[in-house]
From TrEMBL:
<keyword id="KW-0813">Transport</keyword>
<dbReference type="InterPro" id="IPR050298">
    <property type="entry name" value="Gram-neg_bact_OMP"/>
</dbReference>
<dbReference type="GO" id="GO:0006811">
    <property type="term" value="P:monoatomic ion transport"/>
</dbReference>
<protein>
    <submittedName>
        <fullName>Porin</fullName>
    </submittedName>
</protein>
<feature type="signal peptide">
    <location>
        <begin position="1"/>
        <end position="20"/>
    </location>
</feature>
<keyword id="KW-0732">Signal</keyword>
<keyword id="KW-0406">Ion transport</keyword>
<keyword id="KW-1134">Transmembrane beta strand</keyword>
<keyword id="KW-0626">Porin</keyword>
<dbReference type="InterPro" id="IPR033900">
    <property type="entry name" value="Gram_neg_porin_domain"/>
</dbReference>
<dbReference type="GO" id="GO:0046930">
    <property type="term" value="C:pore complex"/>
</dbReference>
<dbReference type="GO" id="GO:0009279">
    <property type="term" value="C:cell outer membrane"/>
</dbReference>
<keyword id="KW-0472">Membrane</keyword>
<dbReference type="GO" id="GO:0015288">
    <property type="term" value="F:porin activity"/>
</dbReference>
<keyword id="KW-0998">Cell outer membrane</keyword>
<keyword id="KW-0812">Transmembrane</keyword>
<dbReference type="Pfam" id="PF13609">
    <property type="entry name" value="Porin_4"/>
</dbReference>
Length: 376
């Protein structure tokens, strides 16, 4: 009799699962080109290369899925791997799914997910930063911003009447020990007896209307063994080893659509507080961009950036202009040109395309790329 009940229960469960709505999607982006960078080293030599990291968008492949559990509840997951098309090697320190690896639940109340995920710094900028993770975009001045991810992270996001609320909490932002993001060192965290070491948390409030949107976010990383702070201006990264040390970014931004033109801009204030030899360092990064579709298949956009690192006496201005022609819904060709002006003590690089292009202090750089992008 017991066996009969078990069989009936199993049959019922199988029947229910057969009618559940589920989907799994394979997707990806392939993006590369030929790049020219002037004054690529201290001797003033130029370089022509295929960039190692990105053109318009970072190359990636991924799998995402959802299962309808009924009552408006879904199970969701994403596994996303970044790679460099130039050599076929994995990005994000060689991680298999270094861009995203998460699972969770989604419902009318929002979503709650667990794993390696973007922090709210990334999501807050997604509409106002016109060029996004472009090779001559904001990542040239702060490489953390287009790579704002953390391991061991719980994320909540919910959208209600145009408002999006989001928060993340990481117990240890670099569980693989390969570097949480460019220039931040390794900070595995989850140390017994020190709950703050390598902790990261972020929060976001965002509003999107028909013609405009605004957002603000705060992102804080605590120090720990082998953690470091890098301002990407040519000054060597300095350690932030204490769990009381902080590397925090506060931002505010917005965008508006007017007469077919999208305008976006914002401010990011960064403050590193350290009890070590690095001391306290602050920076302010401003950006303003615009995008216009000349025809339905030709988009022209550009953005200007200004960064000031007061304690390191470093300043830079970057101007970037891009044109994209869509051959189809999935394939586009593009051209991008940019120029970077460094102050007397700064050594920023115009290109976020894989490093190795640092000029002498006070020297500007010209960058140009022609590339192709295909999505699947």
């Amino acid at each position: 009799m017991k066996y009969g009940r078990v069989a009936a229960l199993a049959a019922g469960l199988f029947s229910a699962s057969a009618f559940a709505q589920s989907s799994v999607t394979l997707y990806g982006v392939l993006d590369t080109g030929i790049e020219y960078v002037s004054h690529a080293n201290a001797a003033g030599d130029h370089v022509i290369r295929m960039p190692g990291i990105t053109g318009e968008l970072p190359s990636r492949w991924g799998i995402r899925g959802a299962e309808d559990l009924g009552g408006g509840l879904k199970a969701v997951f994403i596994l996303e791997s970044g790679f460099n098309l130039r050599g076929g090697d994995s990005g994000q320190g060689g991680r298999l799914f270094g861009r995203q690896a998460l699972v969770g639940l989604e419902g009318p109340w929002g979503s709650l997910t667990f794993g390696r995920q973007y922090t709210m710094s990334y999501w807050a900028m997604s509409d106002a930063d016109i060029l996004g993770p472009d090779i001559y975009g904001i990542g040239a001045l702060d490489a953390f911003l287009p790579n704002a991810r953390s391991d061991n992270t719980v994320v909540y996001k919910g959208k209600f009447y145009g408002f999006t609320f989001g928060a993340s909490w990481s117990f240890g932002r670099d569980g693989a020990g390969t570097g949480n993001s460019p220039g931040q060192g390794t900070c595995a965290g989850q140390v017994p007896g020190d709950v703050n070491q390598c902790r990261e948390w972020s929060a976001m409030l965002k509003y999107d209307g028909t013609y405009f949107g605004v957002a603000t976010a705060y992102d804080e990383q605590r120090g720990g063994t082998n953690a470091a702070a890098n301002f990407f201006d040519g000054v060597a990264p300095f350690a932030i080893r204490g769990s009381g040390d902080k590397d925090a970014r506060l931002q505010a931004n917005g965008y508006v659509n007017v007469a077919g033109v999208k305008l976006g801009g914002g401010w990011i204030g960064r403050r590193v507080e350290s009890n070590g030899p690095g001391g306290d360092v602050r920076s302010n990064l401003f950006y303003l961009g615009a995008q216009y579709y000349v025809t339905p298949v030709l988009a022209v956009d550009g953005e200007a950036y200004r960064v000031v690192v007061q304690q390191q006496d470093a300043r830079a201005t970057l101007a970037s202009l891009r044109a994209t022609y869509f051959l189809s819904k999935r394939t586009a060709v593009y051209g991008n040109v940019a120029y970077l002006w460094n102050s007397a003590h700064a050594r920023y690089s115009v290109s976020a395309g894989g490093g190795g292009t640092t000029p002498a202090a006070g020297i500007g750089q010209l960058g140009a790329i022609v590339g192709v992008r295909h999505s699947f």
